[in-house]
């Protein structure tokens, strides 16, 4: 009887410890879910701002547009204006893809039960992000990044249409294009690797709890 009582107490203690562990991890997962939702909201908001810039750029794709430089050889040609439209459309498609993926992922996270993220068979580990969810976040980020690249290319054409072609050696055009390219490249160099590394670590690295 004594051994049975001790066994029952040990079992009860183990169950209580498991319940405490579950509650703790569910709280952590809930907090992490809120961080994910805020990050997705921010991504959609940024995509919306970029979309506004796209429609502003499309207003310059007109045959009546004249550059500020009076030289005929520096005026925008039809090919440049067509290229501007192509860049703007591709950029819009990328931002739309990014926003739709982020929105669908936000709905999925909101209705997903946190208990499903816990590995009950291995209670000292749990995955922060499932691989499928991490892939969707990564797809949204990459689509937004590609959209930024094409938006930058379209802005280069906008500058040339408004100020004059770079081939004419116009200082203002060169300064604007170089500044734009440098700043965007620096921003993507900081944003993309850090985001990819963070998502990858969350996808494949399990967090461990201390000894109970």
Automatic annotation (TrEMBL):
The keyword Transmembrane applies. It comes from the Eukaryota. The chain crosses the membrane at residues 43-64, 84-105, 135-156, 176-199. Keywords: Membrane, Transmembrane, Transmembrane helix. PANTHER family: MATERNAL EFFECT EMBRYO ARREST PROTEIN (PTHR33430), PGG DOMAIN-CONTAINING PROTEIN (PTHR33430:SF1). This is PGG domain-containing protein. The lineage of its organism: Eukaryota, Viridiplantae, Streptophyta, Embryophyta, Tracheophyta.
């Amino acid at each position: 009887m004594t051994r049975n009582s001790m066994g029952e107490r040990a079992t009860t203690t183990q169950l209580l410890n498991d319940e405490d562990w579950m509650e703790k991890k569910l709280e952590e997962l809930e907090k992490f879910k809120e961080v994910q939702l805020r990050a997705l909201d921010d991504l959609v908001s940024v995509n919306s701002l970029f979309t506004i810039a796209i429609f502003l750029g499309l207003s310059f794709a007109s045959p009546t547009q004249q550059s500020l430089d009076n030289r005929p050889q520096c005026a925008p040609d039809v090919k440049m204006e067509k290229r501007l439209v192509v860049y703007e459309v591709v950029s819009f498609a990328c931002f739309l893809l990014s926003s739709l993926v982020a929105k669908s992922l936000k709905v999925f996270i909101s209705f997903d039960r946190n208990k499903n993220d816990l590995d009950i068979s291995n209670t000292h580990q749990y995955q922060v992000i499932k691989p499928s969810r991490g892939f969707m976040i990564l797809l949204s980020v990459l689509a937004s990044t590609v959209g930024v690249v094409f938006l930058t290319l379209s802005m280069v054409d906008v500058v040339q249409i408004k100020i004059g072609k770079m081939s004419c050696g116009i200082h203002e055009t060169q300064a604007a294009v170089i500044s734009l390219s440098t700043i965007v490249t620096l921003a993507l160099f900081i944003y993309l690797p850090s985001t990819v590394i963070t998502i990858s670590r969350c996808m494949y690295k399990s967090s461990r709890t201390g000894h109970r």
